[in-house]
Amino acid sequence: MDAKTKETTRAQESTNAIERLYVTMRHLFNRGFYKPSGVSGNALKNALLVLRPEIYGSVAEEKGELNGLIYVLERLPDGIEQCRFINLTSDEGFSKSHLKPIIPPKRRRNCYRIDEEQMNIEITRGRSDIYDILTHLTFLFIESNKICERVFFEEDQSTVRDWDKLVAFVQSRKKTEHAREVALIHAANILGRTFEEVVEVHNKLSTEKQKDRFLEIIYWLGKLSIEEQTTGNKRTITFSPLLRESLGHHIHGERWAITVKEKMLELDLINRPIHIISANMHSVMNTLFARNALKDELPKTAPLDIYKTLSLNKKEALQEKVLKVAVENGMVYIDDTSGANIDVQLFDTAKFNEAACCYAFPKTKDKVGKPLIFVMDYAFGEQAFETIDELLKPYEVDGKKHFLDVHSISIMGKAGILDGKKGDLMIPSAHIFEGTADNYPFKNELCAADFEGYGLQVFEGTMVTVLGTSLQNKDILRFFYESTWNVIGLEMEGVHYQKAIQSASKIRKSIRKDIKVRYAYYASDNPLETGSTLASGGLGTAGVKPTYLITDKILEQLFNS
């Protein structure tokens, strides 16, 4: 059997593993609960171990996986490792209780610590959110079981000395630096990692309030797994009845779209030409106004350096000045309260002062024809369909239907690249949906030539919309890359956006048939390259250049259309 045949077989195994994961997750959701150490939980674990996603590194090996652990902890609520009961709910009014929401650093979702043993996680962004959480939890349970297997002897119910010493340190009130180092040495033995590796992760996870957060996480992961073995008290994940009932009905997307359209009607903007941009909440505003707003503070500074300066946390005064100029020139900010976690900015270009805005319309454009630039924050996976589908429906008030005059929809996002490095650009000509033959070719108003000469590599071709970035491995991605699908990268929303756009323009006819679409992505990682996966860390300021370059090209086309 040659190497190529082996590789194809491995890709097929991985595809089957992803399918099993999703079928199992859907089954468990319909059932309403499962125990991670039970039959269903083991089915999830086994499928993940067959798949061995790049993001989870050495999850299938005996040693502990540290980068994957950091990646997962950034996307799950603080303290979840201590909870025996994890309840996935819809928006069920916890925000009106005395409980304070816990929001993970890298995922916008409200979580609530109900008591010492229970964590509730609100799901308001559709199935993709559930898949994301369950995959990360499965990884945590695998790592938890690894710790138990290394420290616990089932025959006499005893534990190894390394574990006893770690427990003693975590439970001690006075913690000296010497004792901390000794505890890290014991943790390194438990995890099968070097002392140096463990210290590095310890420093990354350490906070002012929780200096020993890493050691405490290892302690709790091990403790709950050992207790499952000794007491039979198993961890349980449940899905609330309201969540199971509401999922798939666009409840949060509809609420979000109605709120936004109400505001547009109130401001007399609903009948204006509209350009929708899916991006972050700073790049469009900064690109429109920052260069002129900060000409005194940052004279003779290149645009890119202005944007880099604005991305620094310590530059709040400059950020506030740009925001002030934007508001004075007709920007309205709609803070999301629907549960969709998608904020919106409305830029009324008719109110732009020529001296404030860094772009100008052709002289022939009259005030009535000047468009509304509608910027929405990033959607998450299937939520992209829910939000755009609801937004593009006509808005009915007092028996009158207002059809939105949407001229273009532009999507800027981060994606995994298959040939290139972090920060490079991908311009898709089609989206394909992983695991199906569904494909969505389209005419992209952006092309590779628009981005040449800026020092970044630009790739043009097909993008694959994946069911979850945390489930990709090299074998599947290499198959996509080397096959005639001509895939240049992977992301989670493209198919869902395009599906909603096509149904609104071609079938429902609620928006114009000749709507223009723009898609451009910049590489947050290269999952085919060791050390360049999402678990290896974020882009930092390297993401500023591609973000603003894409934003500038989108705005150039809008102002010249």
What does this structure look like?
There is one protein chain. The protein is an alpha/beta fold. It has helices at residues 3-31, 39-51, 66-73, 127-151, 161-171, 177-191, 195-205, 213-231, 241-246, 251-266, 283-293, 303-310, 316-328, 383-391, 474-482, 494-507, 544-559; strands at 33-34, 85-89, 111-113, 118-122, 152-153, 158-159, 236-239, 273-278, 331-334, 344-348, 372-376, 395-397, 400-402, 405-417, 425-433, 439-441, 458-465, 487-491, 516-525. A 5-stranded mixed sheet has the order 1-7-2-4-3. Strands 14-18-17-15-19 form a 5-stranded mixed beta barrel. Strand 12 (395-397) and strand 13 form a beta hairpin. Helix 2 packs across helix 4, helix 4 (127-151) crosses helix 8 (213-231) and helix 6 (177-191) crosses helix 7 (195-205). The model has no long low-confidence stretch (mean pLDDT 91).
Quaternary state of the chains:
single chain
Briefly note the structural class of the backbone.
Answer: alpha/beta
Strand content: 15-25%
Cα gyration radius (Å): 25 Å
Number of helices: 17
Q: Could you name the ranges where pLDDT drops below 50 across 5 or more consecutive residues?
A: none
Strand line-up in the sheet with most strands? 1-7-2-4-3
- How far is the first residue's CA from the last residue's CA? 56 Å
Q: What is the 3D form?
A: globular
Please estimate the helix content: 40-55%
Biggest sheet record: 5 strands, mixed
Average predicted confidence as pLDDT: 91
Number of E strands: 19
